[in-house]
Amino acid sequence: MLDLEKKKDYLIEHWIKNSIITDKALIKAFQELPRENFILKEYKDRAYDDYPLPILENQTISQPTTVMLMTQALELKKNDKILEIGTGSGYQAALISKIIGIKGAVVSTEIMPELIKFAKNNIKKLKIKNIKIIKSKDNEIGCKKYAKYDKIIVTAALPEIPPELYKQLKDNGIIVAPVGSEFSQEMLKIKKLFYNKYNVKRLGMFQFVPVRGKFGFM
């Protein structure tokens, strides 16, 4: 059985060789951030296997390639302020935080208390200071308090992009989100232009757990 570092190196080599991930800062962040710290103990030896893994509350942590593709699509820059919807184990927020730097900020919302506790503990252990995790409610999406954001990432399936999210995004900002049915979604990269115009790029088909509450499927 390959050890974790060898599995990590294999993934990176695969991404670079096939031009799947080309963002050098993102690859560096992936190298430095211990994904195994965001995985349940019984799955730690699978942290760098390229498929989703269970976490808590019947949720999953996305496979490494999916996490990287979504993060790359955000076109992150130093000092960006990012909104993440769906904290999960905290891994994606932690990855983003390394790229945007200590003067950047990640505001991450999560509806499930057990996941909030899990993610906060994972982030605290790594002494990451630029992530704020907020408990969301069934009848809201995002976090108006800290808007507007440079980029927004949604890590669960939406039936559509709610207008409330567009309002929380700066002009020239980017939303990356899986949109479709409960069982199959298309990953969209949406750039907000001026005068309420948008540029949409389609990044392929995926399958995510659904967003809960008013703006989701349940």
Number of strands: 9
What is the terminal-to-terminal distance? Answer: 40 Å
Main structural class = alpha/beta
Predict the CATH topology.
Answer: Rossmann fold
- Superfamily (CATH H level) name: Vaccinia Virus protein VP39
CATH hierarchy class name:
Alpha Beta
Q: How much helical structure, as a percent, in the residues? A: 25-40%
Number of domains: 1
Strand adjacency order, main sheet: 5-4-3-6-7-8-9
Q: Radius of gyration, rounded?
A: 16 Å
| Share in β-strands | 25-35%
- Sheet having the most strands: 7 strands, mixed
What's the helix count? Answer: 6
The sequence of SSEs as H and E is HHEEHEHEHEEHEEE
Please state the average pLDDT score: 93
Can you characterise this structure?
By secondary structure, the chain is of the alpha/beta class. The chain has one domain (4-206): 3-Layer(aba) Sandwich (Rossmann fold), CATH 3.40.50. Helix content is 28%, strand content 25%. It has six helices and nine strands, in the order H-H-E-E-H-E-H-E-H-E-E-H-E-E-E. The strands form two sheets. The protein has a seven-stranded mixed beta sheet. Strands 1-2 form a two-stranded antiparallel sheet. Helix 2 (24-32) packs across helix 4. The protein is globular, with a radius of gyration of 16 Å. The mean pLDDT is 93.
